[in-house]
Design goal:
The strands form five sheets. This protein has a six-stranded mixed sheet with strand order 11-10-12-13-14-15. Strands 4-3-6-5 form a four-stranded mixed sheet, with helices on one face. The radius of gyration is 19 Å and the shape is globular. Helix 1 crosses helix 5. The chain has a domain of 156 residues: Cytidine Deaminase, domain 2 (3-Layer(aba) Sandwich). The protein is an alpha/beta fold and 307 residues long.
Length: 307
């Protein structure tokens, strides 16, 4: 797949929501497994698959990721972008995916050699064991997010409801995370994977391929607000990060450092802001917002939050 830099994406206010959304009926992404329940009765349940994907940048092997296997091109590009191995002005000359050997090769016009950086890696708390190479975490020192960005509380409530009701692997099988690129109260790009870091990388890759600007955007995740999620969101230039799950102390510290608005535990009428609260515009009475029904709670959500 050859990539040419596209024109900058300009959203149409009247466009439909969800340019990309999960397909829980895609048979490649789940398997049906038999077992027994707490009463000793036979049960069948769907579980997400995990597949290895080995990424090469030009001739150098970079990493093997565990992924559900959809959108390998966006995952590969987004991973390299968020690891600062693919630079904004790099020309991508090809992206070649071979499903038979679970390998994807990204080629650039610029010669690359990241041998030294590959020797230095930090294991992150991502549920699929993400890694942060080299000085990626040092990159936040230079990040300056849009101070003029605002977040209406009505958008938080609308996004939480729309995303929570959208058919997804997260709802269907649990044990998976989702990330959604949003604009005001509209979800635009909804990606899922076994790790939230993979899901956000897919969004970064999609934004690169389709020329989508971070201006006016919001990132929503079903997973915890960890340091890695804050770093990747900040590097993508997105000033607002929302989650239905909780925080880590380092995630909060980094969000405050880069002046990111960090919203967690967003369920029903409730949420908590631990950074960037000055962007909030309280335009709806929480008492008028319905709390999250137990029937609509996502399968395995408590386990996902604790993981």
């Amino acid at each position: 797949m050859n990539q040419q830099r596209p024109a900058k994406y300009t959203p149409d206010p009247s466009q439909a929501e969800f340019l990309v959304k999960p397909d829980p009926l895609d048979a490649r992404l789940t398997e049906t497994v038999q077992g027994i329940d707490h009463d000793g009765q036979p049960v069948e349940t769907k579980v997400p698959v995990e597949r290895p994907l080995t990424l090469f940048l030009n001739g150098q092997e970079i990493v093997t990721m565990m992924t559900i296997g959809d959108y390998p091109d966006y995952l590969a590009l987004g991973y390299l972008i968020n690891q600062r191995m693919l630079l904004p002005d790099d020309e991508v000359t090809g992206v070649d995916y071979d499903a038979e050997i679970d390998t994807i090769v990204v080629r650039t016009a610029r010669q690359t050699d990241y041998e030294a950086r590959l020797k230095k890696k930090t294991q992150t708390s991502g549920c699929a064991q993400g890694t942060v190479f080299g000085n990626m975490m040092d990159a936040v020192e230079s990040v300056r997010l849009d101070e003029a960005a605002v977040l209406h509380t009505s958008w938080i409530y609308a996004l939480s409801k729309k995303i929570n009701l959208t058919p997804s692997l997260y709802l269907e099988a649990g044990a998976i995370h989702g990330c959604v690129l949003c604009e005001e109260d509209r979800p635009l790009i909804y990606m899922e994977d076994v790790g939230r870091h993979n899901a956000i990388d897919k969004i970064a890759g999609y934004m690169r391929v389709h020329g989508i600007s971070p201006d006016g955007k919001i990132m929503y995740t079903t997973g915890r607000l960890t340091s890695e999620m804050v770093i990747k969101t900040a590097q993508m230039g997105i000033p607002i990060l929302i989650s239905r799950s909780g925080f880590t102390a380092w995630g909060v510290q980094l969000a405050r450092q880069v002046n990111m608005t960090l919203i967690g535990r967003a369920k029903g009428r409730r949420f908590i802001a631990l950074s960037g609260a000055e962007r909030l515009r309280f335009d709806v009475d929480p008492a008028a917002v319905a709390d999250e029904s137990a029937k609509l709670q996502r399968k395995g959500s408590r386990d996902d939050e604790a993981a």
